[in-house]
Amino acid sequence: MSTDTNRKELLRKLSRNLMVSVPVMTVVAMAGATAVSDNGFNLIPSAEAAQGEAEGEARGEAEGEAKGEAEGEGEAKGEAEGEGEAEGEGEAEGEAEGEGEAEGEGVSEAMKQAVRRPEGYQPYEGDADSLAKKGETLFNDTTLSSNGLACATCHTSGAGYADTFKNDYPHFVAMGKSDFGMDMVHLDEMVQICMVAPMASEPLDWASEELAALTEYMRIEQEKFRSK
Question: Under 8 Å CB-to-CB from 194, ≥6 apart: which residues?
Answer without folding.
Answer: 151
